[in-house]
C-alpha cells in the first residue's frame, strides 16, 4: 500500500495524521489484518474452495451495497432493498417458462418500478427517504408473498441455476458480475455527469437546485439504480439457493448493505461516495463473520463484534466531519 | 386569495386570509385527528360487513395483541419527537422477554427488574453515543440492534434454550390475567399512554423534547438540557421495549427468541401514521395509539376475510403508510400557504 499523505506531514502533528490515515485506509487495513490472521491461524482458509465460498456469499451484499452507496451519497437511505430482492425472486418462477431473458427482464423491471416509487416519493412528494422506502419495505415483501402465494418454489431452469453455480475463467459468475458492477458504479460516480450531479445533490440540495442541476431527475435515477441492483441481487441469490423463497430472501439485507457502505467510509450525510470502500466494507463484515465462526465462536459473538465494528467505523468517521 | 399581498402572508404565515383560515383549521384538525377518523370509519364499516369483527371477544383479542407493540411505539414516539430514531427496539423487546422468562424462576420482581435494568442500560448507551459522541441515531441503534440480538443468542445458548415462566406464578398472571375480560397488558399500555401524554403535553420535560426535535441548536441557546433529554428518551425507549418484551413473555409463558424481528419498523410505521413527523419537533402520543390500532385492525380484517391470505396485510399496511404520509405532506403544505 502506498501512503501519500505520510510523505509530507507539514503542519499537522503526528497524531491527527494517524487518525486521518485510519479514516482513509482503516477498512482496508482491517481486511488485511483479518486476511493475515486467517492465513496464519485458520485451517483450510487459504483454499480455493473456501475463498470461493466467501466471495460467492458476499457478492449479493456487494451488489445491493453499491446501490445503497449511491442513495446514501444523496443523503438518502433505501430500506426497501431486501423486499425488492424478494419481489424479484418471486417473479422469476412465473416467467421462466418463457425463457431466462424474459424472466430476468420482468424481475429487473420490478426493481425499476420500486425505484420509481421510492424516487418519486422522495423527490416529487418530498418525503424523508426513510419513510418513503419504509412503505415498500413493508408492502414489497407482502407483494412478493402474494405473488408467490406464500410458498417457496424450487427453480428447475438450468439457465438461471447456471448464473448461481457456473464459472467463467475459474471465477464464479456471481462474483464476476459483482466485480464488473463495482467498476461500473465507480466509473459512474467519478467520470460521468450523472455521478457528479448526484454527489452535488447529496452535498447540498438547495445549492444544486440553484446551480440548475436536475435534482428531481437525479434523485429518481439514483433510487431506480438502487432498485435494479437490488432486483439483480435477488435474482442471483435465488439462482444460488436454487429456490425462490419470498419470506426469507433478502431479510435484513438493508442493514447489511447500510453497514457495508458506512463501514466503508461513506458518510450518511451525503455528498461523498466511496465505492471501493463499500466493496471492502462488505468483505470486512463477511470475513469477520467467517473468522469468528470458523474459530468456533457463535453467531451471538459475531453479531456483537459486528456491532462494535460499526460503532468504531462511524466514530472514526465522525472525527473527520468535526474538523 | 391571491389578491392579498404576498408580503403579508410571507411575513406572518399564521395571519393568512380569512377564507384560507377555515381550510387551514380543517387541515390542521384532519392532520391531528385524521388517523382517528380513518380508524373509526374502518371500524364502523367493518362492523356492518363482518359480524364477527364487532364482537367483544374480537375486540379483546385485538387489544391484547396490540398492547405490546403500542408500548414499544410509545417510546419510539418520544425518540422521534426529539428528532432521533431507535432501530434497536425489536431486538430489545426479544431480549427483554428472554431475560424476564429467565429471571421469573426467582419471582415476579426479578422478572420485571432484570429486563428493565438491562434494556434501560442499552437505551442509555444508545443515548450517550447519540447525545455525547454526536453519532447518527440510525447507525448507533442499528449497532445495538445487532448487539442486543447477539446478547439474546448468547443467553439462550444460540437459541437452543427456551426459558419458561413457572405456571401460575405471579409473573405469569401479569401477562395472562384479565379485568373485565381485558388483559392486564392492555391496562398497562393504557396507563403508560396516559402518563406519556401527560408528560409530553403538561410538563417542561415534554416541552423540552419538542424543542430539541424542533431545533437542537435553538434549544441549546435557550439553555435547555439537550443532551440529558436525548439520553433520557433513548433510556425510556429501551425501558418500554424491555417492559413490553417482559409482559409478552409473561403472556406466552416463555421467552421466545425469534420474535421482534422487524418490530422497529412496525413501531415507526405506527408512529408515522399517527402523525408524528420523522424530522422531529411535532407529534402526539394519542396519534401513535390510533396508528397502532389501525395497523392491528387492518390485520384483523384480513384474517376475517378468509379467502385473502395474510400476505395482503403488509401490502395494505404499506399502502396505508404511503397514503397517510402523502396526505400529511399535502396538508402541511396547505397550512404553510
Structure, explained:
Chain A contains 14 helices and 4 strands. By secondary structure, chain A is mostly helical. In chain A, the strands form 2 sheets. Chain A has a two-stranded antiparallel sheet. In chain A, a hairpin with a 2-residue loop joins strand 2 (167-168) and strand 3. The longest helix of chain A is centred in the first third of the chain and has 28 residues, at 14-41. By secondary structure, chain B is mainly alpha-helical. Chain B contains 14 helices and 2 strands, in the order αααααααββααααααα. Chain B has helices at 6-11, 18-49, 56-81, 89-103, 108-131, 137-155, 170-176, 184-202, 204-214, 216-221, 226-252, 263-273, 285-304, 311-336; strands spanning 178-179, 182-183. The radius of gyration of chain B is 21 Å and the shape is globular. The N and C termini of chain B lie close together (10 Å). The relative contact order of chain B is 0.18. The model of chain B is unreliable at 1-18 (pLDDT under 50). The interface between A and B is large, with 47 and 45 residues.
Q: Identify the strand order in the major beta sheet of chain B.
A: 1-2
> SS-based structural class of chain B?
mainly alpha
Q: What string, H for helix and E for strand, traces the elements of chain A in order?
A: HHHHHHEHEEHHHHEHHH
Helix content of chain A: over 70%
Q: What do the pLDDT scores of chain A average to?
A: 87
Number of E-type strands of chain A = 4
Count the DSSP helices of chain B. 14
Main β-sheet of chain B, in a few words?
2 strands, antiparallel
**What is the radius of gyration of chain B?**
21 Å
Quote the distance from N terminus to C terminus of chain B. 10 Å
Please report which band the strand proportion of chain A falls in: under 5%, 5-15%, 15-25%, 25-35%, 35-45% or over 45%. under 5%
Q: Classify the secondary structure makeup of chain A into a structural class.
A: mainly alpha
Helix content class of chain B = over 70%
Query: Segments of chain B where pLDDT lies below 50 for 5+ residues?
Result: 1-18
Q: Which strand order does the major sheet of chain A show?
A: 1-4
Amino acid at each position: 500500500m502506498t501512503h501519500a499523505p505520510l510523505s509530507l506531514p507539514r503542519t499537522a502533528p503526528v497524531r491527527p495524521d494517524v487518525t486521518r490515515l485510519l479514516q482513509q485506509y482503516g477498512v482496508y487495513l482491517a481486511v488485511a489484518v483479518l486476511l493475515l490472521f486467517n492465513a496464519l491461524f485458520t485451517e483450510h482458509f487459504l483454499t480455493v474452495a473456501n475463498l470461493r465460498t466467501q466471495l460467492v456469499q458476499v457478492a449479493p451484499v456487494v451488489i445491493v451495497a453499491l446501490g445503497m452507496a449511491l442513495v446514501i451519497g444523496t443523503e438518502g437511505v433505501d430500506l426497501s432493498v431486501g423486499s425488492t430482492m424478494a419481489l424479484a425472486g418471486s417473479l422469476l418462477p412465473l416467467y421462466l417458462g418463457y425463457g431466462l431473458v424474459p424472466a430476468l427482464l420482468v424481475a429487473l423491471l420490478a426493481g425499476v418500478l420500486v425505484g420509481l416509487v421510492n424516487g418519486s416519493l422522495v423527490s416529487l412528494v418530498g418525503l424523508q427517504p426513510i419513510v418513503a422506502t419504509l412503505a415498500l419495505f413493508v408492502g414489497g415483501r407482502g407483494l412478493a408473498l402474494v405473488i408467490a402465494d406464500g410458498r417457496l418454489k424450487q427453480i428447475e431452469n438450468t439457465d438461471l441455476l447456471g448464473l448461481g453455480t457456473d464459472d467463467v475463467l475459474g471465477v464464479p459468475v456471481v462474483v464476476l458480475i459483482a466485480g464488473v458492477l463495482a467498476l461500473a458504479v465507480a466509473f459512474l460516480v467519478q467520470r460521468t455527469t450523472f455521478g457528479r450531479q448526484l454527489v452535488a445533490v447529496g452535498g447540498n440540495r438547495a445549492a444544486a437546485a440553484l446551480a440548475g442541476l436536475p435534482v428531481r431527475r437525479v434523485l429518481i435515477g439514483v433510487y431506480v439504480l438502487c432498485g435494479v441492483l437490488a432486483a439483480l441481487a435477488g435474482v442471483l441469490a435465488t439462482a444460488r439457493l436454487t429456490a425462490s423463497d419470498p419470506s426469507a430472501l433478502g431479510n435484513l439485507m438493508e442493514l447489511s448493505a447500510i453497514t457495508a457502505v458506512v463501514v466503508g467510509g461513506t458518510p450518511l450525510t451525503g455528498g461523498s461516495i466511496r465505492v471501493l470502500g463499500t466493496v471492502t466494507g462488505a468483505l470486512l463484515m463477511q470475513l469477520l463473520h467467517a473468522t469468528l465462526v470458523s474459530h468456533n465462536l457463535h453467531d451471538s459473538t459475531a453479531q456483537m463484534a459486528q456491532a462494535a465494528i460499526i460503532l468504531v467505523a462511524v466514530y472514526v468517521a465522525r472525527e473527520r466531519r468535526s474538523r | 386569495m391571491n389578491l392579498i399581498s404576498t408580503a403579508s402572508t410571507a411575513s406572518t404565515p399564521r395571519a393568512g386570509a380569512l377564507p384560507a383560515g377555515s381550510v387551514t383549521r380543517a387541515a390542521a384538525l384532519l392532520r391531528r385527528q385524521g388517523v382517528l377518523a380513518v380508524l373509526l370509519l374502518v371500524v364502523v364499516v367493518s362492523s356492518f360487513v363482518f359480524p364477527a369483527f364487532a364482537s367483544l371477544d374480537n375486540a379483546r383479542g385485538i387489544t391484547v395483541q396490540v398492547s405490546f407493540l403500542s408500548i414499544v411505539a410509545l417510546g419510539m414516539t418520544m425518540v422521534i419527537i426529539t428528532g432521533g430514531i431507535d432501530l434497536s427496539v425489536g431486538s430489545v423487546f426479544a431480549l427483554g422477554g428472554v431475560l424476564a422468562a429467565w429471571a421469573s424462576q426467582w419471582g415476579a420482581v426479578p422478572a420485571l427488574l432484570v429486563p428493565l435494568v438491562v434494556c434501560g442500560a442499552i437505551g442509555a448507551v444508545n443515548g450517550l453515543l447519540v447525545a455525547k459522541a454526536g453519532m447518527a441515531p440510525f447507525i448507533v441503534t442499528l449497532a445495538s440492534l445487532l448487539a442486543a440480538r447477539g446478547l439474546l443468542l448468547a443467553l439462550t445458548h444460540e437459541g437452543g434454550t427456551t426459558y419458561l415462566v413457572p405456571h401460575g406464578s405471579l409473573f405469569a398472571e401479569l401477562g395472562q390475567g384479565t379485568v373485565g375480560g381485558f388483559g392486564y397488558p392492555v391496562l398497562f399500555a393504557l396507563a403508560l399512554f396516559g402518563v406519556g401524554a401527560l408528560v409530553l403535553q403538561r410538563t417542561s420535560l415534554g416541552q423540552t423534547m419538542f424543542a430539541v426535535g424542533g431545533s437542537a441548536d435553538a434549544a441549546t441557546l435557550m439553555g435547555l438540557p439537550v443532551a440529558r433529554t436525548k439520553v433520557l428518551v433513548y433510556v425510556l425507549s429501551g425501558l418500554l421495549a424491555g417492559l413490553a418484551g417482559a409482559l409478552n413473555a409473561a403472556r406466552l409463558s416463555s421467552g421466545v427468541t425469534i420474535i421482534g424481528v422487524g418490530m422497529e419498523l412496525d413501531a415507526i410505521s405506527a408512529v408515522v401514521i399517527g402523525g408524528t413527523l420523522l424530522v422531529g419537533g411535532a407529534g402526539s402520543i394519542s396519534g401513535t395509539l390510533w396508528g397502532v390500532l389501525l395497523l392491528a385492525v387492518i390485520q384483523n380484517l384480513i384474517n376475517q376475510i378468509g379467502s385473502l391470505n395474510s400476505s395482503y396485510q403488509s401490502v395494505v399496511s404499506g399502502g396505508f403508510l404511503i397514503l397517510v404520509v402523502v396526505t400529511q405532506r399535502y396538508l402541511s403544505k396547505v397550512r404553510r400557504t
